[in-house]
Design brief:
single chain, 260 residues, alpha/beta, TIM Barrel, 8-stranded parallel barrel
């Protein structure tokens, strides 16, 4: 690792989403360009069993329409414009499939690792979770497991997927840290916990790490807060601002976790 190379600590949330339309190829390419070692993205299982890179459960914010994303086929989703909502200069950016993003990653060994956040609606069934997990397992069958991570807020999915996607690290997403979160992760063999940085305390970081679990935070756009969280022992900052975050960290080599 080069002096003051903070890249392994920074994850581009939905790509470089401060300046680019989220979860698009241009956002992921920008994240790689500025030096983020990780990107975070969202996946949903469509009606035709295609895994699509898309955050919102319902169309209307980043793409025109009112449909639930899971009710669409890839043919229906693929033609939507997911760039112009951000700026006219991004008109024509299209959704991606999980396989498209995986192909982009594997085209170069220097491209970021991927944290795939599994997006599910309320009242999801074990059968639906199993279908989702099996689709992920097929896509990642030949992937380098060291470059991938699955995370979700949905405990039913984690309980179901653990026996289907057996060799990909998994993490539980939470907002406030529940009293049973650490025990849940340990019992299921999860690798870490992803938390809302605004509710996290230094004592919680210590308690999670003491049990051998990784601590990662979302969505850290406050640069000074990122510096402080790393000081607490947080291992990854998910941010919409990967370029500015890396620039800020590189300007503070006195930080206790400063890479050598």
């Amino acid at each position: 690792m080069k002096t003051a190379d903070w890249s392994p600590f920074v994850c581009a949330h939905r790509g470089a989403s401060e300046t680019c339309p989220e979860n698009t190829l241009i956002a992921f390419e920008k994240a790689a360009e500025v030096g983020a070692s990780w990107i975070e993205t969202d996946i949903q299982l469509l009606a035709d069993n295609t895994l699509a890179v898309f955050h919102d459960l319902v169309l209307g914010r980043t793409a025109a329409g009112t449909s639930r994303v899971v009710d669409l086929t890839w043919e229906e989703l693929a033609t939507l414009d997911v760039g112009s909502w951000k700026s006219p200069e991004f008109t024509g950016q299209r959704p991606m499939r999980m396989v498209d993003l995986l192909s982009w990653q594997t085209a170069s060994s220097g491209r970021p690792h991927i944290n795939w956040e599994v997006k599910l609606g309320r009242h999801v069934t074990k059968s639906e979770c199993n279908r989702f997990a099996e689709a992920i397992a097929r896509v990642l069958e030949d992937a380098d497991r060291r470059r991938h991570l699955l995370s979700t807020f949905d405990r039913t999915f984690l309980e179901t997927a653990r026996s289907v996607v057996t060799d990909i690290p998994m993490a539980l997403n939470v907002e406030d840290l529940p009293d049973d979160a650490i025990d849940f992760c340990l019992a299921l063999g999860l690798e870490g916990i992803h938390l809302d940085w605004t509710t996290l305390t230094e004592a919680q970081v210590r308690s999670i790490k003491r049990e051998g679990l990784a601590v990662r935070c979302y969505t850290v756009n406050d640069l000074e807060a990122g510096w402080r969280l790393l000081d607490w022992g947080v291992e990854l900052l998910m941010t919409d601002r990967p370029g500015p975050m890396l620039d800020y960290l590189r300007a503070h080599p006195e930080h206790p976790q400063a890479p050598l």
